[in-house]
Design brief:
This protein is an alpha+beta fold. Strand 5 and strand 6 form a beta hairpin. The chain is globular, with a radius of gyration of 20 Å. The structure holds adenosine-5'-diphosphate and magnesium ion.
């Protein structure tokens, strides 16, 4: 520890020294850690495995997360390096992605970014989701908080993303793909998942892609529970796919200049009827992504 300039009180997990917290999710805390053997930095996702809040469902989803991450081999998916089991936590030792969440990036830098930046990010995301679905895996929690950037903005290479958080991901049987577990964030949830509770996870992942694309273009969510709005009204707006783009005459800066091609792609994806929603192939072929 002294050699690394770390205080004696540093928490040690396996052969990893915990440096500082870097993220928080619904069940877990993520910390920056150093491998005492190699000096390499990692992100340690610590999932509590004891206590009143931990039930069997969480435990099985954790082992699924580990199993799935082990199988993943894609440049835009976070790598799982190791796992450490402690009496109180299961720790996923993951590649450390230092640019932070796409969520914070959009909040802070929206006005300084361009539609081309949005396109670069979205293309990578479409590629990752095609990889997952091609392997009969659905993610079910695609959102800006679960997409990380490899470099701080502005970066010379342009934004490179890493998808993380496979806590809700699972395999599907393509011959009977219908699922009934309601999960994920409501802001990103497709109408059929939110309202009927029966859904094809590939189509709901694609809806989430549409929400992410909208945020990349506009800088805020298309559907958000507004003050004074009831949950029912909020769900109704999603069910109707009732979102709007900002009006150029009322807005200035980037929001006022979203291209018609980009809007058209959002429209093709955010279709409330999953049968009419764009498929990944249709998205890939869309002119906005090919110009
Ligand atoms: P949860 O399943 O509890 O939502 P996540 O896996 O999404 O947990 O991790 C929570 C947060 O921790 C993420 O939103 C992100 O900010 C941060 N984080 C997760 N994985 C990494 C990583 N590999 N590198 C850097 N930060 C990470
Ligand atoms: Mg998360």
């Amino acid at each position: 520890l002294a050699k690394l300039g770390l205080p004696k009180s540093t928490q040690i997990i396996g052969h990893y020294a915990v440096i500082k917290p870097i993220g928080k999710g619904s069940f877990s805390e993520v910390k920056l850690a150093i491998d005492l053997k190699s000096g390499e930095k990692f992100a340690l996702k610590m999932i509590p495995t004891e206590g009143i809040e931990t039930d069997d469902r969480i435990k099985s989803s954790v082992s699924r997360e580990v199993e799935l991450l082990k199988l993943m081999d894609h440049p835009n998916i976070v790598r799982l390096h190791d796992t450490v089991d402690t009496p109180t936590h299961l720790c996923l030792v993951m590649e450390y992605v230092l640019g932070g969440e796409l969520f914070d990036h959009v909040c802070k830098n929206y006005e300084q970014t361009t539609e081309t930046d949005a396109k670069r990010i979205f293309l990578q995301l479409v590629d990752v989701v095609a990889y997952l679905h091609g392997n009969n895996i659905i993610h079910r929690d695609l959102k800006l908080e679960n997409i990380l950037l490899t470099e701080l903005y502005p970066s010379p290479t342009g934004p490179i993303i890493k998808l993380t958080d496979f806590g809700l991901a699972r395999f599907i049987d393509p011959s009977s793909p219908i699922l009934t577990t309601r999960c994920g964030s409501e802001e990103y949830a497709a109408p059929e998942l939110l309202i009927n509770g029966k859904y094809d996870g590939r189509q709901t992942d694609i809806w989430s892609l549409g929400i992410i694309l909208y945020v990349l273009l506009v800088g805020y969510l298309p559907f958000d529970l507004e003050p004074g709005q009831t949950k029912r009204q909020f769900y109704y707006k999603i069910a109707q796919a009732n979102y709007k783009f900002p009006k150029p005459e009322k807005e200035s800066g980037r929001r006022a200049t979203i291209s018609e091609e980009a809007k058209d792609l959002v429209k093709m994806i955010l279709q409330s009827n999953p049968k009419r929603r764009a498929t990944l192939d249709q998205i890939k072929q869309h002119r906005w992504l090919n110009e």
